[in-house]
Amino acid sequence: MAICFVGRRGRFWCTDPLARDVVRPPPNPLNQAGAPPPPTLLHAATEMATRLREKRVAKERHKIDKHGLPPGIELVEGDSLKEWTLDIRVLDANPIYRDQTYRLKFLFPESYPIEPPEVTFDEQPNRPIPMHPHIYSNGIICLDLLGSQGWSPVQSAESVCMSIQSMLTSNSKNERPPGDAEFVRGNRQRPRDIEFLYHDNTV
């Protein structure tokens, strides 16, 4: 005995597989092979974080366009919402950095500004890596502000540049961090994944 069900638009189907000349329901396109899976909570959270980053970076860029940057800091490339490059100079008479300009590369993660940007010195022609006990020769910077513990969402690319500029200004040691050669040779981690011990804030 076949049991029939009435569907939408008056169409019907039967539970009897031997029944002939019946109209069976159209397959649900979401259940077909190859159909895109429904969005997950992780996917939604990632999209939300990306929108937050883009909104924040665009806001910082608008502020720079409107008010400019402090003396000694220049935005070189800032059209992307993921990566910027800026030049900084030390403005006082510190002989270590006199007449030098240094380039910083900013990579904004999806979690920015909740998490800090990845900031490194980028060596280019006429843009050396500055000598400093907290700056490795590959451009990685040991600065608590750039770590999860020292970072705050109220910070910005501008404030990071100012902190690094101040770090150079106050430095009196023309040297690299201890173990620089070994670190540069063996490091395979991204700067944000390195756990530095911030034991000396006097340089």
Automatic annotation (TrEMBL):
SUPFAM superfamilies: UBC-like
Domain of life from the UniProt record: Eukaryota
Annotated UBC core domain residues: 52-203
Keyword list, A-Z: Ubl conjugation pathway
Keyword tRNA processing: no
Protein name: Apolipoprotein O
Organism field: Purpureocillium lavendulum
Lineage: Eukaryota, Fungi, Dikarya, Ascomycota, Pezizomycotina
Encoding gene per record: UBE2W
